[in-house]
Amino acid sequence: METASATTSATASTLTRSRSITQQQFRQVMGQFLTGVTIVTARAEDGPHGTTVNSFASLSLDPPLIMICLRAGSRTGAVVAAAGAFTVNILSRGQAELGARFAASGRPSGHEAFAGIPHRLGASGAPVLAGTLAHLECRVRKTVTAGDHTLFIAEVFDLDAGPEFLDIPPLAFHQGRFLTIP
Ligand SMILES: Cc1cc2nc3c(=O)[nH]c(=O)nc-3n(C[C@H](O)[C@H](O)[C@H](O)COP(=O)(O)O)c2cc1C
Q1: How far is the CA of 99 from the centre of ligand 1 (A)?
Q2: What are the extents of the domains in the chain?
Q3: What is the tens place of the pLDDT at every residue in 17-72?
Q4: Is 35-180 a CATH 3.30.70.270 domain?
Q5: Ligand 1 pocket by Cβ (under 6 Å)
Q6: pLDDT at 119 over 80
């Protein structure tokens, strides 16, 4: 059995991977962590763009900072980097279809992607979706390349949580599936 001192004396350089971790194992383990679901929107040159994102987290209260992680080389990553701004729309329990629609790889782009989805354009030109629990309009402050993803740290410059949605549960994601909280 390892002693406490032996454990605490380990430095980051000694904590090398003792066995190979497959992407499947990593996905399976991370899939046990329940998250909410958002649609991140931004203004692209050819019109509005949106993608389903669950890597959203609050980062700082003063100043108000949030973070999202986007796959390096993804269209959304390029659009967000070019726009320097994006909006996070937090989905409610009844919006799984919307979450699936904006995660589909072959979905239409530009205005066609938002056809039939009630929305308005926010200050940055990013769509603010109607009927979501809340939204945050953000300006990118810092990007960090981390493995095969890019971390976007952004400052919130406007936000709203519709009081009419206070009693409605959020849409959740667990083990690769949308989950409806009763
Ligand atoms: C629930 C859920 C959460 C997701 N979260 C992320 C995420 O945080 N970052 C990311 O890069 N992709 C995420 N994806 C995958 C993207 O939505 C998907 O790959 C999309 O097609 C990317 O669009 P793009 O090619 O326009 O960037 C998620 C998918 C689902 C269903």
Answers
A1: 9
A2: 35-180
A3: 667 999 999 999 999 999 999 999 999 999 999 999 999 999 999 999 999 999 99
A4: no
A5: 37, 51-55, 69-71, 74-76, 99, 103, 105, 173
A6: yes
Say if residue 27 is exposed, middle or buried (CB neighbours under 10 Å; 0-12, 13-18, 19+): exposed
Looking at the DSSP assignment, which residues form a beta bridge with residue 36? 172
Of 83, 76, 38, 75, the residue nearest 57 (C-alpha): 38
CA torsion through residues 40, 70, 59, 140, sign: negative
Band of residue 153 on the pLDDT scale cut at 50, 70, 90: very high
> CA angle, corner 31, sides to 17 and 130, nearest 5?
135
Compute the distance between CA of residue 111 and CA of residue 118 in angstroms, rounded to an integer.
12
